[in-house]
Design brief:
The chain contains two helices and seven strands. By secondary structure, the protein is α+β, with helices and mostly antiparallel strands. It is globular, with a radius of gyration of 14 Å.
């Protein structure tokens, strides 16, 4: 199935791509809002090559290609920690993007906020 959808990746595949030099990009799909003492919104994750091309969207499984969405900041931070990230930078506005370097790599200028024009 992955041959039919080369622009997607599962969690295990994402770990491998991060080890190969990809960056983990968090994209805000629905603006974050604070309710009581928690933040809610919709965020997705992508593996992005350092040059910004060859992106792969995180999906729930290979057999069921549904984009994995995070609905709380707590869930998103937990996921980032599981991927080995030692910091979490989360965009709160719709369309915002933040990049995270793989564990063990020196953070480069390409990590952090990214201005992207949608086609």
């Amino acid at each position: 199935m992955i041959e039919e959808a080369p622009n997607v990746v599962t969690e295990d595949g994402l770990r491998s791509l991060l080890a190969d030099g990809y960056l983990l990009e968090v994209v805000c799909k629905e603006a974050g809002e604070k309710r009581h003492n928690s933040w809610y919104g919709t965020w997705v994750a992508r593996a992005v090559a350092e040059d910004g091309r060859a992106d792969k969207m995180l999906v729930t499984s290979r057999s069921y290609l549904k984009v994995r969405e995070f609905k709380t900041i707590v869930g998103l931070v937990s996921f980032l920690a599981e991927m080995g990230c030692t910091t979490a930078s989360i965009p709160l506005e719709e369309g915002g993007r933040e990049r995270h370097a793989a564990p063990g790599r020196v953070a480069q200028l390409r990590t952090g906020p990214v201005l992207v024009k949608d086609d």
